[in-house]
Amino acid sequence: MEFTGAKLALFLGHDLLVIQRDDKPDIPFPNHWDLPGGGREAGETPAQCALRETYEEVGLRLQETDLIWAKEYQRTSGKMWFFVSHQPAKMVDQICFGNEGQGWKLMTSAEYCKHPMAVPHFVAQLCEYLEEIGR
């Protein structure tokens, strides 16, 4: 299966975990609010990619069984996967922020979807998931 990367919309309780991207002109969407995830490493499945990146970026170790929704999207960089997981709010105490990005915070999904600095295609994908589940 060919794909370039994967992202995870990770809900901790009712809120979405978001990461503020570095403010560097050489990266896509500098200074924007992003979701955990990133590029594929050799031989990874989409789920393995999303879970590894989540662990590297915020220190949370999830299992493939924690992923409740998945969809493949075509981006200009290639095929990307978008996953969703809902975990208990208390998991926020386990966050150990990595070395990518400026910081993290929790936002409601509505706040993220309306935020001017949210990565636009992740807003669209999150909204598609929320519409599908009737929120």
Which key terms come to mind for this protein?
30% strand, Nucleoside Triphosphate Pyrophosphohydrolase, seven-stranded mixed sheet, alpha+beta, 7 strands, 135 residues, globular
Outline of the structure:
The protein is an alpha+beta fold and 135 residues long. It has 3 helices and 7 strands.
Question: What radius of gyration results from the CA coordinates?
Answer: 14 Å
CATH superfamily: Nucleoside Triphosphate Pyrophosphohydrolase
Briefly note the structural class of the backbone. alpha+beta
Largest sheet: 7 strands, mixed
Instruction: Give the strand content.
Output: 25-35%
What's the CATH topology label?
Answer: Nucleoside Triphosphate Pyrophosphohydrolase
CATH architecture name: Alpha-Beta Complex
Helix content: 10-25%
CATH class descriptor = Alpha Beta
- Per DSSP E runs of 2 or more residues, the count of β-strands stands at 7
Q: State the end-to-end CA separation.
A: 31 Å
Count of distinct structural domains: 1
Mean pLDDT over all positions: 95
Global shape: globular
Number of helices: 3
Q: Uncertain runs with pLDDT below 50, 5 residues or more?
A: none
H and E string: EEEEHEEEHH
Organism: Parasedimentitalea maritima
Protein name: NUDIX domain-containing protein
Cofactor: Mg(2+)
GO molecular function: hydrolase activity
